[in-house]
Specification:
Elements: E1 4-5, E2 20-32, E3 39-41, H1 52-55, E4 62-65, H2 78-87, E5 92-96, H3 111-126, E6 134-137, H4 154-178, E7 183-189, H5 194-206, E8 213-218, H6 223-241, E9 247-253, H7 262-274, E10 278-281, E11 294-295, E12 299-300, H8 302-311, E13 316-321, E14 332-338, E15 343-349, E16 355-360, H9 364-367, E17 370-378, E18 391-399, E19 406-411, E20 418-425, E21 439-443, E22 448-450, E23 453-456, E24 472-475, E25 483-490, E26 494-503, E27 510-516, E28 522-526, E29 536-544, E30 547-555, E31 561-569, E32 575-579, E33 584-586, E34 590-592, E35 603-607, E36 611-618, E37 622-630, E38 634-638, E39 641-645, E40 651-655, E41 658-665, E42 668-681, E43 686-689, E44 694-695, E45 700-703, E46 711-714, E47 723-730, E48 734-743, E49 761-767, E50 773-777, E51 787-795, E52 798-805, E53 813-821
Parallel strand pairs: 1-19, 2-16, 3-4, 3-10, 4-5, 5-6, 6-7, 7-8, 8-9, 9-10
Antiparallel strand pairs: 2-13, 11-12, 13-14, 14-15, 15-20, 16-19, 17-18, 17-20, 21-31, 22-25, 23-24, 25-30, 26-29, 26-31, 27-28, 27-30, 32-42, 33-36, 34-35, 35-42, 36-41, 37-40, 37-42, 38-39, 38-41, 43-53, 44-47, 45-46, 47-52, 48-51, 48-53, 49-50, 49-52
Helix pairs in contact: 3-4, 5-6
Length: about 800
């Protein structure tokens, strides 16, 4: 038996009499892993938002975006974002053609108004070199918008239906007249309608205007219950109509309470992958963050890590039997078996109940007599809350039973978390037991509240409420005496990481006063978030003695909402071990599981032409120690720089905040893991405040209490004459990372009740005599909130002129820059 006892939490829950069972049958293939359910509507907003390092690991198969110049939103144009999407391995782009209109619901000006717009869109897309990777969606939610196809009255339905069918045929033929090879998707209803689809399939087949992709939306909590019946009904309608199975894309799915939450997302993804359909998460809030799974531009949250795990499934998916099929908010999962890699993976979540993962019919020809079972957790960290590499909770060698079964017990689960179980051949030796620090969680609504109010957030009945831990948070902490007192208990003296899940809609950095047992207050500063319930995470440390304490968060200069605090014992510097056998690969490396010592998932054997790519998390910009656990030297590539790495010898490498893609190659080496330690040292970096820049044109220093040195560079750009020039004195030549600390809050209100139409700014960065590089800077939610973007640059030894500007539009406000050599 492989045991996994998860960290204790501050809130106890009653365990059921017997653990629930999630059964996996490795002999029952469902076909190749498709990765269809990882898409997003308006998941990209601009070239570089999200960053390449955040986008590439997810292996996105489809996204949905507006046509170029569409008035529905200020960014997210399909052709513009296609550059970053395709260079990062993206599949295809759905063009939401009606998003050419400004209003929501779309203004109904008649088909004659729409057709010239259709012509323009198709001409632009068909002229693109990647035109074959675009799919046209002529109508969006016609059951509700323009045509009212969801009316109950049959006579009225038939009138509306016939109008829609005439327009569908007209637009379909118009698209094909311009782009004969066009792929067209529809009818794209807001909800599943048997009546409409039966009629639509018959009409489209008869008139030769059948879509190449069938689309509809699943946008309610009930979809977790009903989608399977919808899918099966639709396939039956196809068979009855004599139509070969069409590709299906559920091009909007999930609610606000699901997005960013690993334990919710796994429920949706498992049913879509099981049925081999494509699916894109819905766009309820801001563009450019993969619908709630990327923090800022480059930082993973818990949802990102779940989709990274999903992207790591290879081989075939296999049959998974959950405790309750097609039931809202229950334990669900998906699993894969890769016979060439000799790996089985199970992703599961959605329940806090004790669970046994029962993996059956494990082929001994692949795994031998034992397996190493490795269990990790991707927790909910909020929409805007950073999440380090998922913690490995257990790694145990287990004998396969005579009937080919292994049971992995999971205890102390968290409902909002997702879990990954990886099975690999056991080999010789004993896997290292992972160090799992003590941790506890405390809900704000269970604390002692003064001058505040408990609010209920996203629930099954209020699915478009925002996710909250325990479905509740504490708000209205806006009175002079507002505070929340948490009673906590820790097992021993020491330093503890304190994570605060919060929201800040004040438009400026907000503060609270943190005290321990009524002692001297410490100011906690919270960056802005999209709104009071768009959860972010503030990390800091506290010193506590063993026993019970009162942690008080009292109102500072502005208001915040509080959801939950987590305390975790700190044993040393942050550290993570990234298993090579779970890295992305190219070439034909082999997998050696002869030894299960150490991280316990064997070695990836690299030869000339092979590559392994690791996704390495950094909590902040700075230097980290990177150690390859390998049998021979390897080369590591990062930020366009390559360096020889000796086994077991640390390299000092500069990582940017968030995800970093590190590529390993070798002439011949067995690589077990890449171990990364540190918190982002600034030693050896160069820093230049705003006042150090030479400003030209209208650019000027602006006083700000929130800028690092009391001033930032404002009014930068919007003219070729308006620039900021820094002189960077590099001790050595070579590849460096230029980190720009910036802020801006450009927005355009399109009048949508639920979309926050934030805009990005760009700046052209020129180093010496090299050509300018355009860099995108995402909106920071407030003019006084400073984020960072890291840009690889080549510097010569000595003085280097670094110029920032934008001849055609405003650049972001610049607080300061930092420069670090990639190899420190």
């Amino acid at each position: 038996m492989a045991g996994s006892t998860l960290p204790a939490t501050g809130t106890a829950t009653a365990a059921p009499a017997a653990p629930q069972r999630l059964s996996v049958d490795l002999s029952a293939s469902e076909g190749p892993v498709m990765l269809g359910a990882n898409g997003a509507l308006y998941g990209l907003s601009d070239d570089g938002v999200p960053s390449d390092a955040a986008l590439a690991p997810l292996k996105i198969t489809s996204i949905s975006q507006k046509p170029e110049g569409g008035a529905q939103h200020p960014n997210g144009d399909a052709l513009t974002v296609s550059k970053s999407f395709f260079r990062n391995g993206g599949g295809e782009i759905n063009v939401m053609m009606q998003d050419i209109y400004a209003k929501w619901p779309y203004e109904d000006l008649g088909i004659d108004d729409y057709l010239p717009k259709v012509d323009r869109i198709v001409k632009e897309v068909s002229a693109d070199p990647n035109s074959d990777r675009f799919v046209y969606i002529p109508f969006n939610e016609p059951d509700q918008i323009w045509y009212k196809l969801d009316v109950a009255d049959q006579a009225r339905y038939e009138v509306n239906r016939d109008r829609f069918f005439r327009d569908w045929k007209t637009v379909y033929e118009r698209i094909r007249a311009i782009d004969p090879d066009a792929r067209i998707a529809g009818p794209n209803e807001a909800a599943y309608h048997t009546r409409l689809l039966r009629d639509f399939l018959a009409f489209a087949k008869r008139e030769n205007v059948l879509p190449q992709v069938m689309t509809w939306h699943e946008l309610g909590s009930g979809s977790l219950r009903d989608f399977q019946a919808h899918h099966d009904d639709y396939r039956a309608l196809e068979r009855a109509a004599g139509i070969a199975p069409l590709k299906i894309n559920i091009d909007e799915y999930a609610n606000r309470r699901d997005l960013s939450v690993p334990g919710q997302l796994v429920q949706w993804v498992s049913m879509f992958e099981r049925n081999k359909v494509y699916a894109n998460q819905a766009y309820w809030d801001a563009a450019g963050n993969m619908d709630g799974n990327v923090v800022r531009s480059n930082i993973p949250n818990g949802g990102w890590w779940f989709f990274r795990w999903y992207a790591g499934l290879t081989g075939d998916t296999v049959e998974v039997t959950p405790p309750q099929a097609n039931t809202v908010d229950t334990l669900q999962g998906l699993a894969s078996l890769d016979t060439s890699r000799r790996q089985a993976q199970v992703l599961l979540g959605g329940s806090a109940d004790d669970t046994d993962v029962v993996v059956r019919k494990i082929p001994r020809s692949l795994f031998g007599r034992t397996v190493t079972a490795t269990v990790a957790e991707a927790a909910w960290s909020g929409y805007e809350g950073q999440h380090a590499a998922p913690r490995v909770l257990s790694r145990t060698k287990v004998s396969i039973a005579d009937d080919g079964t292994v049971t992995v017990p999971l205890r102390g689960l968290h409902r909002m978390s997702a879990y990954r179980v990886v099975l690999t051949p056991g080999g010789h030796g004993t896997p290292a037991t992972p160090s799992v620090p003590w941790t506890a969680s405390y809900e704000a609504e269970d604390a002692t509240i003064t001058d505040g109010k408990v609010y209920t957030q996203g629930t099954v009945s209020n699915a478009n409420g925002y996710a909250a831990s325990g479905t509740k948070d504490v708000g209205s902490l806006n009175q002079p005496g507002s505070k929340v007192d948490f009673t906590v208990s820790v097992p021993q003296d020491g330093t503890y990481d304190l994570a605060i899940l919060y929201g800040n809609q004040s438009g400026t950095p907000a503060t609270q006063r943190l005290t321990v047992d009524g002692g001297d207050p410490v100011t906690v500063t919270y960056p802005s978030t999209e709104n009071w319930t768009y959860r972010a995470k503030k990390d800091l440390t506290v010193r506590l003695t063993a026993g019970t304490h009162r942690l008080t968060l009292a109102k500072g200069d502005t208001e915040v909402t509080l959801d939950r605090i987590d305390l975790t014992a700190r044993a040393g510097e942050p550290a993570a071990s990234y298993e090579a056998t779970l890295a992305d690969i190219s070439g034909r490396p082999s997998y050696d599981y002869s030894s299960s010592k150490g991280v316990g998932t064997g070695e990836l054997v690299l030869r000339s032409g092979d590559r392994a790519v690791f996704d390495v998390y950094a909590p902040r910009d700075g230097y980290y120690r990177v150690v390859p656990r390998a049998s021979a030297p390897v080369r590591l590539a990062l930020h366009g720089q390559s360096v020889a790495a000796v086994p077991e010898r640390p390299l000092r490498l500069y990582l940017v905040a968030g995800n970093n893609r590190i590529t390993a190659t070798a002439r011949h080496a067995g690589l077990r893991s890449l171990d990364v330690t540190g918190a982002g040292s600034a030693t050896g970096t160069l820093a230049y405040e705003a006042a150090a820049a030479t400003l030209t044109g209208g650019a000027r220093l602006v006083d700000s209490a929130h800028a690092s040195s009391g001033a930032y560079i404002g009014q930068l750009g919007n003219s070729a004459d308006s620039t900021a020039e820094f002189t960077v004195n590099a001790p050595t030549a070579g590849r460096h990372i230029l980190v720009v600390h910036y802020a801006h809050n450009d927005r355009r209100d399109n009048g949508h009740a639920y979309n926050t139409d934030i805009m990005s700014r760009t700046a052209d960065i020129t180093v010496g005599t090299a050509g300018p590089r355009t860099v995108t800077f995402k909106n920071t939610w407030g003019w006084d909130d400073y984020w960072t973007v890291g840009v690889p640059v080549d510097l010569r030894k000595g003085a280097n002129k670094v110029t920032i500007g934008n001849a055609g539009a405003w650049a972001p406000n610049i607080d300061r820059i930092e420069v670090g050599r990639v190899i420190g």
